[in-house]
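Example protein
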Amino acid sequence: MSLILHGYWRSSAAYRVRIALNLKGVAYQQATHDLRQGAQSAPDYLALNPQGLVPALEADDVVLTQSPAILEWLEERYPDPPLLPPRLADRAVVRAMAATIACDIHPLNNLRVLQSLRRRFGADPETERDWANDWISAGFRSLETTIHRYGRGFAFGDHPTLADCCLAPQVYSAARFGVDMTPFPSIRAAMASLNALPAVASAHPDLQPDADR
């Protein structure tokens, strides 16, 4: 199967998918779209993804959108190594951790929201930074408790899961906005384990073909 990942180097959602693809050892090509220039709104891309967001994953017979759906598809299509634990309740916990990031934290500090703050309310860079910092920190406080409870080196257990695929990009975003990570030792420990994995390290935004040089 031939896979093409449409993304942008600094997109947290595309970063999640790169991590999952790398952890599973699945080969893929990248097609990049500079969100700052509005490339996601180009007619040819909207024909693939009418929502005009990244990522989108082209497989042989389908175009998949929304990173949580893509992650679940990868887990089902390429089950080894698994990114969900075997027990039903544990899988629900991992999905909840991933959703805390993908649904509650990330949407409030992505590019669309920050641009809207500027356009509608005249937010300056300091206000944007404070906004993102507040929402990321609030989400991390709850996530810290969950990782402390369930993590054994990673966000859940002793192997990377879908929760880690979401965690690493959000921690990267937290650094961009100057979030103080001191209160989150369990998150920092999970990130240390993730950063030691070549599959995760190679997905880092700075190493992508369209990254700013």
In short: The CA atoms of residues 33 and 164 lie 25 Å apart.
